[in-house]
Amino acid sequence: MARPKPETFDKQKTVAENRRARFDYAVEDRYEAGLMLQGTEVKALRAGEASIAESYAEVKGGEVWLINANIPEFSHGNRFNHEPKRPRKLLLNQREINKMMGAVERKGMTLVPLSVYFNRHGRAKVELGLAKGRKAQDKREYIKDRDWKRDKARVMREQG
């Protein structure tokens, strides 16, 4: 079965978004990956508690891991609660993993989580971006382009 195009990811409920990543990195490819979670982690995500602001993904031993993502302990989890910042395995096709591994090793790219969400089947997913870091000059150009697009849209709206 073919994977959906990045524009058509089936996002029903977005739990966490890494808006800073879109500014700091130039995202070239996007992937949808499943998350391997424990029971209390799913409950905490459904409550809308998660942060992926300072997290990243890495390929280790032919597997992709989400590192430093914060899913706080579930309030009613008692002794079965999970560790908030534990590494979590991401579920991807082997072909996608190989493509990511090649890009990270050869091209010096980074795997950045862009958002965590639930799809229409109730499965927790992570949108991963294969990205290249922006330098300060690139960031200034990005801000200038974004501001120009906003001003252009405002003028077009006023003109009718």
Automatic annotation (TrEMBL):
Q: What is its main location?
A: cytoplasm
Pfam family for this entry, one: SmpB
Xref: CDD domains: SmpB
Q: Where in the cell is it found?
A: Cytoplasm
InterPro entries from the UniProt entry? SmpB (IPR023620), SsrA-bd_prot (IPR000037), SsrA-bd_prot_CS (IPR020081)
Question: Which keywords accompany this UniProt record?
Answer: Cytoplasm, RNA-binding
Q: Which GO terms describe its cellular component?
A: cytosol
Q: Is ATP-binding there in the keyword field?
A: no
Task: Cite the SUPFAM superfamilies for this sequence.
Answer: Small protein B (SmpB)
Q: Which domain of life is it from?
A: Bacteria
Q: Which GO terms describe its biological process?
A: trans-translation; trans-translation-dependent protein tagging
Supply one GO molecular-function term.
Answer: RNA binding
Q: Which HAMAP family match?
A: SmpB
Role, per record: Required for rescue of stalled ribosomes mediated by trans-translation. Binds to transfer-messenger RNA (tmRNA), required for stable association of tmRNA with ribosomes. tmRNA and SmpB together mimic tRNA shape, replacing the anticodon stem-loop with SmpB. tmRNA is encoded by the ssrA gene; the 2 termini fold to resemble tRNA(Ala) and it encodes a 'tag peptide', a short internal open reading frame. During trans-translation Ala-aminoacylated tmRNA acts like a tRNA, entering the A-site of stalled ribosomes, displacing the stalled mRNA.
Entry's family note: Belongs to the SmpB family.
How is this protein named in the record?
Answer: SsrA-binding protein
Q: Which organism is it from?
A: Qipengyuania atrilutea
Q: What gene does this protein come from?
A: smpB
